[in-house]
Each structure stands twice: as structure tokens, then as C-alpha cells.
Amino acid sequence: MSDSDPILTPSDGVLDRYLAGEATLAERESVDAWLADDSRRAHVLAVMRGPTATRSLAELDTVVQRIERALDGSQVRRDDDRAARVRNVWLNREGGVSGRRFLLPVLGVLLIGIAASVHQWSARTNNHSRPTVHRYTTSIAQRATVSLADGTRVTLGPQSTLEVPLRFGSMTRTIALKGQAYFDVRTTSGTPFIVRSGSVTTRVLGTTFGVRQYPGDRYAEIAVTSGKIIVTTGAHSQITKTLDAGAVANATDSVVTLVSGDSAKRYTSWVSGQLIFRGTPTSEVLATLTRWYGYQFRLSDSSLNENVLTAVIDAQSSAQALSTIKLLLNVDLTFDGNVITLHPKHRSTMPARRRQNTTDIMTPSHAEVGR
């Protein structure tokens, strides 16, 4: 229905006969078509059938005054001329005129007001449900680079999620990370760049650093490759430590621990295509390879988890990764789709050096991987 249409088209007599069941076939078809044209009209008819239709003119006058106050200065009014016509007819009515005749336009304006109020409530509700962040997510074996509004570049590792507020910019630069990412932060005067990973907060002004904390990890790994950062942790942000370039730290809910004798390069080498493990438990190595290559690993002997591994693996080569695992753990590999089961070879054939599995190795050829 266009705004220029009257609220009610059928005459009062036709509507009265329609409600009383006395309308002719042509009149019924006319009213039915009119009702189908605008769903609000059915509500008007429903009210007319109910107790509201017997209200006195004094009661309806009170209703109109409330409507006029609600409409005053609001955006509810769809048609100022239409509302003015309703007011003028009502205020200048002559005695003896049917209350039902004036009830119809009043109810029309009332329904417009109700519809607009519902629309405004719906808009407010939808505003609350609309996303407040941009969410960037990588899947298994996938990496991504995200350029933020301030010029900062973020490299996401596999199975990671970065949440950036829609209002990210000059006033706030706080983001949230689940998984692994490398940050090249653009300096912005007076506005720190803040990364939240679990209960750990990393605060910088302009630097490059890496953060890793997947769901279930015991701690967040933080490695600084340039500049300086401040790491804060604890329920009440009471534990703070400053990390300089080259420093590595593990942060839990209650402590930030510097990792001595290690380099930040090992923790950020994945950005340049290398996975570096140094005395890393087998379970952690296999979890990393699962994220990077999509394989699921099973151990036929749980004692394999007692090993710690040291190796450098090409992040782009799953064949090399499997060859390395096969050699270091002295196992055979069997495949069932993307599920790989590790079977230990006979212990007597395992050289002593390899049982420790803590020595860097030369990469075997891809042909050594059996399927």
C-alpha cells in the first residue's frame, strides 16, 4: 500500500455488513482484497470485532491524545498529512457520529505507531546481534596474511583465529588470538597494540613478534624478533614482564617465564617455511604436523611419547615431515586415509643415538616414506 492511500478504503456501511455477515458477494470480495493488500487492516477488523469496538468517544479521545504525544517529534509518523486528517476529523467531530467510524482511522494510526515501535525495537535488537569484530580463521594446512587498518601485518598459522574489532584504529588497537600468529606492528603514536591470547596480554608500540597459544596448550609462547614488548598475565593483571628483542617467554595464568638458551627464530621460523623442533615431546611434534598437513597420528605403542625430538622440517613438504618422523622414532608408518599409525621397529635395531632422538638430522629422501 502506498503512503497516499487512505487507511480504510471500504465505506463504513460495507465494513459493518462485512462484520455482521450481511455483505453481498461483491462486497465480501472487495473487503477480502482490501485486507490482503495490507496485513495491518486485518488487525483493525479484529479490534472492531472485540471489546474495543464498544469504547465510548471519551475513551477513544484519551487514546488519540496518547497517540499524538507518542507521535510528536518521533519518526513513527509515516504520513504527516494522514495523521493531521485523523486529528482534525476527531477534534472537529459532530455529535451523533458513530464511534466506530472514528475508531477505524484512530486504530490505523495506532497500528502505524506500533509497527514503527516494533521496527525500532527490532533494529536495536539486531544492532546487539550484529558482529562487532572481523574474524579471520585458517583451517588445517592453511596460512593467511591479514593487513590491519593501521598498517600492521599479521601472519596466521594453521587452525588459528584472529578477532579484530570493527572500530580498530587510532583510538584502540586491541585484538584477540587463538592459535599462532606473527605480528609486524606499525607504530602509532600514543596507541599501544594489544594482543589477547587467553589470559595473557601482549602490549607493544611497534615491533615484530610471535604468539602461539592453541586451545588446550599449557602456556602461551611469545617470541620477540625486534623491538620490545610487555607481557601481562594473571586474573587481575598483576604479573608483568618486559621482553627485549630475541627474548622468548612462556606465560600461564600465574607466571611469565623467560626461556633461556633459546632463540626467537625457532618460534617464528614457520613464517619463512621451516618448522624447527628442539627437544620437543613427540606428542607436541605430532600435534604440530597435524595442523600443518592434516594427518591424524596414532601410536601403536604409547612409549613413543617418551621421546623428545630435534629436527628442522620444510613446512611445505609433508613427505619430508613423515620421513623425518619415521627416521627419528625408528618406526614404520601405515596409512588409512589421512590417519597414520606409527609402529615401533624392533628395539635391538635402534642405534643408541637415535633412541635419544635429540640430534639434528639430515633430511632423508622422500622415497623413504612408505605408504
Q: What is the CATH topology descriptor of the largest domain?
A: Jelly Rolls
CATH architecture of the largest domain: Sandwich
Helix content: 25-40%
Shape: elongated
Your description of this structure?
The protein is an alpha+beta fold and 371 residues long. It folds into 3 domains: 118 residues, no CATH class; 132 residues, Jelly Rolls; 96 residues, Phage tail protein beta-alpha-beta fold, CATH 3.55.50.30. It has 10 helices and 18 strands. Strands 1, 2, 3, 4, 5, 6, 7, 8, 9, 10, 11, 12 and 13 form a 13-stranded mixed β-sheet that branches. A 3-stranded mixed β-sheet has the order 15-18-17, covered by helices on one side. β17 and β18 form a beta hairpin. α5 packs antiparallel against α6. The relative contact order is 0.06. The N terminus and C terminus are likely disordered.
